[in-house]
Design brief:
19 strands; about 425 residues; binds 4-amino-1,4-dioxobutan-2-aminium adenosine-5'-monophosphate; binds magnesium ion; 2 domains; single chain; BirA Bifunctional Protein, domain 2; eight-stranded mixed beta sheet; alpha+beta; OB fold (Dihydrolipoamide Acetyltransferase, E2P)
């Protein structure tokens, strides 16, 4: 009996007979030689079947083989330097587990997206294609990298709630639900809760799904996305700028180390990623506005940057760029005003290079009770809902800061793809929630 092995481990079995359990990804034929490309989740391998080395019956059955049929195949592993994984399999036998009839995604599926309108409703099958496979593995590495980065630095993970009684990032993008007769909202950010937790643990982070009912149909917007949010007591704006640089450099390095094959599948230019080294560029909002004006773009001081502006600013740098000190009036209530200039806040956004736009938003938080209370009043926020949050400024308040990194936008940038819909297993897009 041949041993069941995974494709990613085949190199350890050169010359041995093994069993592969997987699916038929593709097939080709050139007369007396037939090629079956199998995938088993861990990788892809070409299996070669030569007439005369297997039973005539098996050889003839090749033409009946259909894409995505499930197969158990037995063969001998052969070193093949030109093959992507360095090996091929010489087929001895195979058995179909279930024959897939008329697989609805065409054979050229990995050669770019034929039509997203067709593929999105087939996401449950599209996930099997090579590029999507590569993307989910890069996502996995980023998620593991996030955990490792913070634990190596002695942060404590704090899980923030998904059901919340109030808004963090503005009331216009809340998904409302019913909580035993009371309104509740899906979390827009775990920030307010990690602010509480950092007063208990010093260095904390939360990492989970985040919801924004944004009526935006852009390549950067999802209704449900995953955000990691570190929050640190006694950190000021400069401290989180440094932490965010270290963090992003770490994630890029991790993907380069662990997912080179996947980046190749996606056609990513690795040289651009190898340049992601600290220090990153840091500019003020005012300097960013100047870059836009120098490029001849029309922009008023006080406006927020949209996708086009972010692209234009980031194109001026090879590393990510941190833009700090935005006008206070376009930013949320919790951001601390700059004592040197109360028109701006002590915040930072990190824009990815190559026009990928914002991947991080963060700030130093308002830590003074009276100032924060005034802010709530100015913004007409229901103080009752935020009393617990104000408590944090009453009992041992300290300067503290944090940021949020959206992992889908980070994946899109690192992978060099165009749209966030491919960076998450089952994207929730404007008015699209199937499958
Ligand atoms: O800038 P945002 O809204 O910041 C916050 O939520 C803060 N409370 C975070 C904090 O300080 N703890 O969002 C942070 C990041 C963005 O930079 C972006 O990467 C991502 O979350 N993001 C989205 N990603 C996909 N789709 C959306 N609709 C997103 N909105 C934000
Ligand atoms: Mg933001």
């Amino acid at each position: 009996m041949a041993k069941w092995v995974y494709i990613e481990d085949l190199k350890k079995f050169i010359g041995e007979e093994v069993e592969i359990r997987g699916w038929l990804y593709n097939k080709r034929s050139s007369g007396k030689v037939k090629f079956l490309i199998l995938r088993d989740g861990s990788g892809f391998v070409q299996c070669v079947m030569v007439k005369g080395t297997v039973s005539d019956e098996l050889f003839a059955s090749f033409k009946e083989l259909t894409l995505e049929s499930s197969i158990v195949l037995v063969g001998v592993v052969r070193e093949e330097k030109r093959a992507p994984g360095g090996v091929e399999i010489d087929v001895k036998d195979y058995k179909i587990i279930q024959k897939a009839v008329d697989y609805p995604i065409p054979k050229v599926r990995e050669e770019n997206i034929p039509d997203v309108g067709v593929l999105l409703p087939k996401r449950h099958l599209w996930l099997r294609s090579k590029k999507q496979w590569a993307l989910m593995r890069i996502r996995d590495t980023i998620e593991k990298g996030i955990e490792d980065f913070f634990h190596e630095r002695k942060f404590v993970r704090i899980d923030s709630p998904i059901l919340t009684p109030s808004a963090c990032e503005g009331t216009t993008t809340l998904f409302k639900t019913d909580y035993f007769g009371e309104p509740a909202y899906l979390s827009q950010s775990g920030q307010l809760y990690v602010e509480a937790a950092c007063m208990a643990h010093g260095k904390v982070y939360c990492f989970g799904p985040t919801f924004r009912a944004e009526k935006s149909k852009t390549r950067r917007h999802l209704m449900e996305f995953w955000m990691v949010e570190p929050e640190i007591a006694f950190y000021e704006l400069d401290d989180i700028m440094s932490l965010s640089e270290e963090f992003v450099e770490y994630l890029v390095k991790r993907v380069l180390e662990e997912r080179e094959e996947e980046l190749h599948i996606l056609g990513r230019d690795l040289k651009k990623l190898e340049k992601i080294k600290r220090p990153f560029a840091r500019i003020t909002y005012d300097e960013a506005v100047k870059i836009l004006k120098d490029k001849g773009m029309e922009f008023e001081w006080g406006d927020d940057f949209g996708g086009d502006e972010e692209t234009a600013i980031s194109e001026a740098f090879e590393t990510p760029v941190i833009v700090h000190r935005y006008p206070a009036k376009i930013k949320p209530f919790y951001m601390k005003r700059d004592p040197e200039n109360p028109d701006v806040v002590l915040n930072m956004d990190m824009l990815a290079p190559e026009g990928y736009g914002e991947i991080i938003g963060g700030s130093q938080r308002e830590d003074d009770y009276d100032t924060l209370l005034k802010r709530f009043e100015e913004e007409n926020l229901p103080i009752e809902d935020y009393k617990w949050y104000l408590d944090l400024r009453k009992y041992g308040s300290v300067p503290h800061s944090g940021f949020g990194l959206g992992i889908e936008r980070t994946i899109v940038w690192i992978s060099g793809i165009r749209h966030v819909r491919e960076s998450i297993p089952f994207p929730r897009l404007l008015e699209k929630i199937y499958p």
